[in-house]
Design a protein that fits this description.
The protein is of the alpha/beta class and about 200 residues long. The chain contains nine helices and five strands, in the order E-H-E-H-H-H-H-E-E-H-H-H-E-H. Helix 3 runs antiparallel to helix 5. The mean pLDDT is about 90.
Length: about 200
C-alpha cells in the first residue's frame, strides 16, 4: 500500500512527516525531488530548455528567475512545465522504494494516482496565515494570495481518506498513532481476505 500526505500551505504537513520518522516511516518529498531532478537529470533539463529556452539552464545550472518568469507568464506555460516535471517526480517516487509521499499539490499534479490512501493535514485559516508569514517573512496579503492560489482545504479534505488536525492545540501524536493503527488494521484485514 502507498500513502500520501497533503495539505495546504501552512497546514504543517512537513512537521507531521517529521513525526512519522519516529515511527520508522520515511516520506518522499515531491517538492524537494522536483528540485533535485531539475538539478541533476540531463533529459529533464533538455525538455525544459526546449520549452522555456536555452537560457533556463546556463552552464547546466537552473536559472530560477528565468523559469519563474516563464511560469508566471501564463497558465499554459505552467501546465507545460508541470507535464514535464510531474511525471518525472512520479517515476522517481516509484524508483525510491518508499511507501509514503508528501505533496502540497497532490491532486493538482494527479499524484494521488500513485497511492492507495491520502492523509490530509488541516489547520484553521488564521493559523495557516500566521505560520506562512512567520516561516517565509512575507506580508499577510502575500500569504493569503499563496493560500488562495491552491486548491481549497475543504476540497482536499473531501477527497482524502484520513484527516490530521494540526491546529496547534489538538495533540498530534495520538492522531498519528490512530492513523497508523487504522492502516495496520486495514492492511491486516486485506491480507486475511487474500488468504
Amino acid at each position: 500500500m502507498k500513502y500520501a500526505i497533503t495539505g495546504g500551505i501552512g497546514s504543517g504537513k512537513s512537521y507531521v512527516c517529521s513525526l512519522l520518522k519516529k515511527y520508522g516511516i520515511t516520506v518522499y518529498d515531491c517538492d524537494q525531488a522536483a528540485k533535485r531532478l531539475m538539478a541533476t537529470e540531463r533529459r529533464l533539463q533538455e525538455r525544459i530548455s526546449e520549452t522555456v529556452g536555452t537560457d533556463v539552464f546556463p552552464n547546466g545550472v537552473l536559472n530560477k528567475a528565468t523559469l519563474a518568469e516563464f511560469l508566471l507568464a501564463s497558465k499554459e506555460n505552467n501546465e507545460k512545465i508541470n507535464h514535464i516535471v510531474h511525471p518525472a517526480v512520479a517515476a522517481d517516487f516509484h524508483r525510491s522504494g518508499l511507501d509514503w509521499m508528501e505533496s502540497a499539490i497532490l491532486y493538482e499534479a494527479h499524484f494521488e494516482e500513485n497511492v492507495d490512501r491520502v492523509v490530509c493535514v488541516t489547520a484553521p485559516l488564521e493559523t495557516r496565515i500566521s505560520r506562512v508569514i512567520e516561516r517565509d517573512g512575507i506580508t499577510r496579503s502575500k500569504a493569503e494570495e499563496w493560500i488562495n492560489r491552491q486548491m481549497s482545504q475543504e476540497e482536499k479534505v473531501s477527497r482524502s481518506h484520513y484527516i490530521i488536525c494540526n491546529d496547534g492545540e489538538t495533540p498530534l501524536i495520538p492522531q498519528i498513532e490512530d492513523l497508523l493503527l487504522s492502516i495496520r488494521t486495514k492492511n491486516f484485514q486485506q491480507e486475511q481476505n487474500n488468504i
